[in-house]
Amino acid sequence: MSSPNIDIELDALKEAVSVALAHAKKLGSSAAEVAISKQQGLSVSTRTQEVETVEFNKDGALGITVYRGGCKGSSSTSDLSTDAIALAVKAADDIARYTSEDPFSGLADSALMAKNIRDLQLYYPQDIGAEELADLAIRAEKAGVDADTRIKYSDGATANAHTSAKVYANSHGFLQGYCSSRYSLSSVVIGEESDGNMQRDYDYTVSRKFADLLSPEEVGAKAAEKTLSRLDARKIATAKLPVLFAPEIATGLIGHLIGAISGGSLYRKSSFLLDSLHTHIFPDWFSIEEQPHILSGLASANYDSEGVATQDRRIIDRGQLETYLLTSYSARKLGMTNTGHAGGIYNWTLSHSNQTFADLIKAMNTGLIVTEVMGQGVNGVTGDYSRGAAGFYVENGVIQYPVEEITIAGNLKDMFIGIQGVAMDRDLRSSIRTGGILLSEMKIAGN
């Protein structure tokens, strides 16, 4: 049985970090920070409608970083007894005494610490047992296989229920913690083509709240629908064509932007967007809003992993890059201001072009819908992009047939500025909330 009551451990975790900070102070450190997390969860996987694995996890650890001037030492312990914490703090302090000084290390500035802590409604405990999760997974599998005679096999389904408690504190006097929950269900099915070859696809649902998950029948049916649409795929001739990225692929495209404007890439000079702040890298109508405080959002947070307050901000404003994504360390290295992005991004929402995904297909006229990409052919330094792909060939605004075993190529700078439209029907299942993205042109390598 998955216990939903991880919130009762929050006070004990806060006490543990307070103990760690007190030990660091006694040892004469100039500053210290402590993070602790506890996770527990239940995951059930099924295959051919039989339970394959049941995994229960309950773990956590305390991490302590001690600073002596510009010297830094870190250690961790999963034992939260007072003696174990004291030993971990001493180990971190010993390391700090012998490391080289780095003038850019240290806590985030105290003025940036989050003060207005809101209830973001991230925690919805649900008492769920392995039998209930197995039932969800089996129902999703059955719905997929029963959808059509061409669906020959289920390649498995997985249902998850996870909760966590996290606490962060530092010697500025900041000490905060919160609990969160995440539930998900996914299913994969395999269909058989007319020549005996196989195709597979999947679907999934995820939410902070168990009751907000799609039904297993919807997940299974959608996995089957996507698989059936890929049957009898073919190659196309090499060409330059407009490309429409499906929403789940569009998030990956924007993920390359995140990497390029993150502080670590910038101070290492390993980004194709060096010196691009306040320049146009997207079309004039295109914007990206960061909204960290969306209630029950999958990437909502009051503060980052250094305690810095998150805030609503425009990442891209009418095509112009408005901010880099900086931690305290990268901000100091670059001589800029910390933006509170230690640990990631927070609910990016892309503007749209007042078109649905179906509208973008029509607007594309002749081109390629990309529903899957493969390989790691993206150069973060130059922006060169080349990946294997699969999807659908479109002619006269109508899908003609599925396509596989092709390569799409371009440069991310050209791809970003060449965005022709973003669909208004957004996929909200990740930290990047976007619809499909239509690009003016990419190179397609096929026959």
Kindly report the average pLDDT value: 95
Dominant shape: globular
For the sheet with most strands, the description reads: 6 strands, antiparallel
Class of the largest domain in CATH?
A: Alpha Beta
**Multimer state:** single chain
Count of folded domains: 2
Protein name: Metalloprotease PmbA
Organism: Shewanella denitrificans (strain OS217 / ATCC BAA-1090 / DSM 15013)
Domain Metalloprotease TldD/E C-terminal: 239-446
Domain Metalloprotease TldD/E central: 124-231
Which helices and strands appear, and what pairs or packs with what?
Elements: H1 10-26, E1 31-47, E2 50-68, E3 71-77, H2 82-98, H3 130-146, E4 151-170, E5 175-192, E6 198-207, H4 216-229, E7 239-245, H5 247-260, H6 263-267, E8 288-290, E9 313-317, E10 320-321, H7 328-334, E11 348-350, H8 357-364, E12 367-374, E13 384-395, E14 398-411, H9 412-417, E15 419-422, E16 432-433, E17 437-445
Parallel strand pairs: 7-12, 11-16
Antiparallel strand pairs: 1-2, 1-4, 2-3, 4-5, 5-6, 7-17, 8-9, 8-11, 9-10, 12-13, 13-14, 14-17, 15-17
Helix pairs in contact: 1-2, 3-4
